[in-house]
Design a protein that fits this description.
Layout (H helix, E strand, L loop, with lengths): L10 E9 L13 E7 L7 H6 L6 E9 L9 H19 L4 H11 L1 H4 L5
Antiparallel strand pairs: 1-2, 1-3
Helix pairs in contact: 2-3
């Protein structure tokens, strides 16, 4: 997959110092999140958050990377149907190889809107 050279990859890194045990809550007098810092690179570990951290206090450092340039992959309907037919043929081949052609034709005919009408 080729990258567009004129377009910069935008990345947002969110560092949080929050309660580390997902099965318990922090003590009542302490917040669930002690600190939050937003940077652009994962190599920038925030010293301000590390200064809040104490050994054995139950809080952990979390790093979430959000890529702003990543988009959801929306395929055309014809491509989806082609992939569905290919996967159906593969499933039938592993389960009943002797009856592959008959079972494939029966399944595609029963759900022609989902698989489409083209052969595999």
């Amino acid at each position: 997959m080729a990258q567009n050279p004129g377009r910069k990859k935008q990345r947002v890194v969110i560092w949080t110092l929050r309660w580390g045990n997902p099965y318990t809550r922090p003590p009542e007098w302490q917040p669930a999140v002690l600190g939050l810092q937003i940077t652009s690179r994962t190599s920038e570990q925030p010293a301000a958050l590390y200064s809040l951290k104490k050994l054995g206090d139950g809080y952990a450092m979390y790093c979430e990377v959000h890529d702003a340039s990543a988009r959801a992959r929306n395929l055309p309907e014809a491509t989806k149907k082609k992939i569905r037919r290919r996967n159906l043929a593969r499933r039938i081949e592993t389960q009943a190889p002797l009856f592959k052609a008959e079972l494939f034709a029966r399944e595609v005919a029963a759900k022609s809107g989902y698989f489409g009408s083209e052969p595999a």
